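Justification of resources, computational component.

The compute hours requested in this renewal are based largely on the per-chain cost of generating structure records like the one below. Each record pairs the submitted sequence with a full structure-token output. That output is archived, and it is also reused by downstream analysis tasks.
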Amino acid sequence: LESSEKKTEEQKLSNNFTNECISFLTTYYDNFRELDALPVGPISDRTKEIIFKLKEHKDLLLNINSELTEADSYIIHHSIKTTFLVLAIADFLKFPIHKQIEIGIAAMLHKLGMQLLPAQLYQKKGSLTPKELQVIRTHPVISYKALKSAEFPVSIYVAVLEHHEHIDGSGYPRRLTGNKISLNGKILSVASAFAAATTKRPYRGGLDGHSGIMDLLKGKGT
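The structure output for this chain reads:
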């Protein structure tokens, strides 16, 4: 009973921390849209907090609620979930702390460019038209330009630019192949894809964790 109560309390704390991260990123994105502000300090500090929390509650944070309502911001939730995944991977790969911070910031901001696109595009329930798809595919470049202009480290804005590249050259925006894609870009690509596949949206179901992993493994080599 005591063990169960402790687990429930830890889950509550993890949920509260996740909500704090979502609130932080919502405000950060709002300031970007309204004031064109992208300060490095606050998002670096938030990334350090996530790294610390993952050491204490990794299992709980990697199993945050993945069901969204119509009112929820998919971009914000997706970015936070991707950040938790990316930092867990970086820790497993024994990245030094400064490298973990860099890839964590890249994960939080990898959908930044979406904020400047019409919301109806990424919230559309049906299939995108070729023209709409072309517009959506500009978001990594928009993010890249904004982060570069704000003088973020090169490793951050390059990873953001490359998070939709595929090792067989079928990705975008530059159709890079193999080792021409940075390691951070590859990790971010995998984490973002898994986060998207395992999130339940108002118009479709989400895969469970095991199915999400198997879905990724089907893409091995591509």
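The chain has a mean pLDDT of 90. Residues 2-35 form the longest helix (34 residues).
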